[in-house]
Write a structure and sequence with these properties.
Elements lengths: L1 E6 L7 H17 L4 E3 L23 H10 L2 E10 L2 E10 L2 E7 L11 H4 L9 E2 L4 E4 L9 H8 L4 E6 L12 H16 L2 E6 L1 E4 L2 E4 L3 E3 L5 E4 L6 E6 L3 H9 L8 H13 L5
Parallel strand pairs: 1-2, 2-3, 7-8, 8-9
Antiparallel strand pairs: 1-14, 3-4, 4-5, 6-7, 9-12, 10-11, 12-13
Helix pairs in contact: 1-2
């Protein structure tokens, strides 16, 4: 399958401008023969810091359905989801124009200048899902920094994890180089869980932050096979085969030895002892 990674900028709160930009990028990806088109986190509304007057969308909104119809294939796109009393930082996955899955971000950063809990409700479920190409899961930005989540998706059948992100340069690079951290994290995630990792980060400047891009595809052996430039918009392509994940798992059968019952007992013990439930 050919994956198109749309490394784009997003204007905070300017839904119409972001929709127009998405249509242009989808056209470019479709012309390149993409079987799956992936956008960054919150691509349709931008990443909010401080006051936010963005327009949330329901997952069945016709404007997103129109994007999916234009794609004529699989589309994963980040959006601010309207779910009645709650709103979520979500990613919608469409297959051949129909909504197949919505994954809500689970771990919302709420420290330093990050204020996601002010704008969004944490998601409450994580599921792998079947696509025309194989088992797929989605982790939005900070969710990928929780080491047990890729493991859970792999155990649930994911052979591909899509990681839409809005990752910016930190204000203290001597403490954390986000670009280097992500590179190490993605290679480790793919290698340890024997799956494909597709990371799509935004670019541009917003709220005093500069987003660095560097979108990439990592194979089940932990090798980067495609990478976008830093700090510029781009649509890049990578040809991947999910059968490589299945082959890797046969050659090095680590995932089947997970002992989920043992893990469940130990997690229950930690929760009973006062751990975070």
């Amino acid at each position: 399958m050919r994956v198109a990674l749309v490394q784009c900028d997003s204007r905070v709160g300017d839904l119409e401008a972001n929709l127009a930009a998405a249509k242009t990028a989808i056209g470019q990806a479709a012309d390149g023969g993409a079987d799956l088109i992936v956008f960054p986190e919150l691509a349709l509304q931008g990443y909010p810091l401080g006051r936010y007057d963005g327009v949330p969308l329901r997952s069945d909104d016709s404007r997103m359905s129109d994007l999916a119809a234009q794609a004529k294939t699989a589309l994963a796109i980040g959006f601010h989801e309207d779910a009645g009393l709650h709103s979520y930082n979500s990613v919608a996955y469409f297959q051949n124009g129909s909504l197949l899955h919505v994954q809500r971000k689970l771990y919302l950063p709420n420290y330093d200048i990050w204020e996601e809990r002010k704008h969004f409700t944490p998601g409450q479920a994580l599921r792998a899902f079947r696509t025309a190409h194989g088992g797929t899961g989605i982790l939005t930005c900070n969710d990928a920094w929780q080491p047990f989540l890729p493991f859970l998706l792999a155990q649930d059948g994911a052979e591909l994890i899509i990681i839409p992100a809005d990752s910016a340069d930190t204000r203290a690079p001597e403490v954390l180089d986000t670009h280097a951290y992500w590179q190490e994290l993605l290679r480790s995630m793919a290698r340890m869980n024997e799956l494909w990792a597709v990371f799509v980060n935004r670019v541009g400047t917003s709220g005093g932050l500069e987003y660095w891009g560097g979108s990439c595809v990592v194979d089940p052996a932990g090798l980067v096979i495609a990478e976008a430039p830093v700090k510029q918009e781009a649509v890049i392509f990578a040809d991947i085969d999910l059968a490589d994940a299945r082959r890797r798992r046969r050659e090095l059968p680590l995932l089947k030895d997970a002992r989920l019952g043992f893990l469940a007992r130990e997690l229950a013990r930690l929760i009973d002892a006062g751990g975070d439930a």
